[in-house]
Specification:
Blueprint lengths: L3 E4 L9 H14 L6 H4 L7 H12 L5 H19 L11 H10 L3 E5 L5 H7 L8 E3 L12 H10 L6 E5 L2 H9 L3 E5 L10 E3 L7 H5 L2
Parallel strand pairs: 1-2, 1-4, 2-3, 4-5, 5-6
Bound molecules: 1,6-di-O-phosphono-beta-D-glucopyranose and magnesium ion (MG).
Keywords: Isomerase
Protein name: Beta-phosphoglucomutase
Family: Belongs to the HAD-like hydrolase superfamily. CbbY/CbbZ/Gph/YieH family.
């Protein structure tokens, strides 16, 4: 039986990847290089500092630790300028209805995100009230594929990992769920999220009934 559902944020609840891409690209451009939307895929689910390392590597730029922190701070400010303009219209299709039906069925809801900005984002899209627990980049010491973020979510909702289902759009996130002994619903393409128990392309048409059949 399923007693809690744990949700990734970017790519599952809302598509913040487009804003991360704009802000990281501005950083790259100011350092006199560029990268593609295809490369940006590799940054999904990865922490801010790990993302910076990858991008600097693509541009062949080396910086001191101090400079890295300064650029990461700049990027986050640019990103937050975009986040501040987000509206509830950006919530991905079917998400609010699915979360409402989880509530009606007494199933706990937690967030498990790498982002340090998750609460602000949930506030902007008016989804903060749906969550019984929020575990994000401010709480964790180990990023996905380590299961820490989801194990903390299970604990915060008082549910055993085996009774949790994780919703993830990133391969590393699905791996984190499985490493934590949880079921995983991939949100995206079945060709990419091969380790997920099932894959959905959208929450539209997904239901608590289908969840309980997993
Ligand atoms: P921040 P998720 C992740 O969110 C994003 O997918 C990833 O691109 C980003 O670098 C990371 O959050 C950290 O975000 O800079 O806001 O702390 O998919 O784990 O919800
Ligand atoms: Mg994600």
């Amino acid at each position: 039986t399923v007693k809690a559902c744990l949700f990734d944020l970017d790519g599952v609840i809302v598509d913040t990847a487009v804003y991360h891409f704009q802000a990281w690209r501005r950083l790259a451009n100011e350092l006199c290089f560029d990268f593609t939307e295809h490369q940006n895929e590799q940054l999904k689910g990865i922490s801010r500092m790990e993302s910076l390392e990858l991008i600097l590597n693509w541009g062949g730029v080396s910086l001191t630790e101090e400079e890295k922190i300064a650029w990461a701070t700049k990027k986050n400010q640019w990103y937050l300028d975009l986040v501040m303009q987000m509206t509830p219209n950006e919530v991905l299709p079917g998400v609010p209805d699915f979360l409402k039906s989880l509530r009606e069925n007494g199933i706990k809801i937690a967030l498990g995100s790498a982002s340090k900005n998750s609460k602000l984002i949930l506030e902007k899209i008016q989804m903060l009230d749906y969550f019984d627990a929020i575990i994000d980049g401010n709480n964790i010491t180990k990023g996905k594929p380590d299961p820490q973020v989801f194990l903390m979510g299970a604990e915060a909702t008082g549910v055993q990992p085996t009774e949790c289902v994780v919703f993830e759009d990133a391969v590393a996130g699905v791996q984190a769920a499985k490493a934590g002994g949880m079921k995983a619903v991939g949100v995206g393409s079945a060709d990419i999220l091969t380790e997920a128990d099932i894959v959905i392309s959208t929450f539209e048409g997904f239901s608590v009934e289908k969840l309980l059949q997993m």
